[in-house]
Every structure is written in C-alpha cells, then in structure tokens.
Amino acid sequence: MADLKYDPVPHNQKDFLEKASKRRGFCEVYDALETEYALVHEMLSARTRAGLTQEAVADRMGTTKSAVSRLEGAGRHAPSMASLKKYAAAVGCTLKIEFIPQPMKR
Going from the N-terminus, what domains does the chain have, and what CATH number goes with each? Predict the structure, then answer.
C-alpha cells in the first residue's frame, strides 16, 4: 500500500488571486470555472482531512496518481460520477450533490 504521509505544499490562495486578478481576462475565466473550482476545493479539503497523498488515494481507487491529479485539476477534466464516488470513498467521505435554487431575477 502507498505511503499515507501527507505533506502539503504551502499555498496562499488570497495572495494568488490578488496577483492573478491583475492579469487581463483572468477574472472572466476564473468566474466561469467557479463550480469546478468549488468541486476541486472540496476534493482537496477531503484529501487533506484524510491525510492522504494523491498516490495513496490512487491506490485506494485502483488507479494511478496521474489520474487523481487530473481529477483534482479544475477545468481540465470533467470527472464522471463513478470517479467522484470512488474518490469520495477513498478519502473516507460520501458524495453528496445538491441543486441550490437561485434567487428569482426580475
């Protein structure tokens, strides 16, 4: 079984967004991927809570580290329900999907 030690790479999202938002077109593209980024954030948070590396998750899913990396890459890959369920189980979670009503526009 893969080593379960997790050593996260330091990243300051606030600083990153502040610098990146100054680039032309960044905000439009970032906003268009809001749902994908929210999904990736949930996935990474679950993996962090579980204390697992991508390799350990891959081992539990019966796939490769590169496949897990693609799952965790916002906007580059649209994961299937089957893959999301396997990922959730691998990090000790249950997958829950919600449709949240939007406020009526006038």
Answer: 13-90 (1.10.260.40)
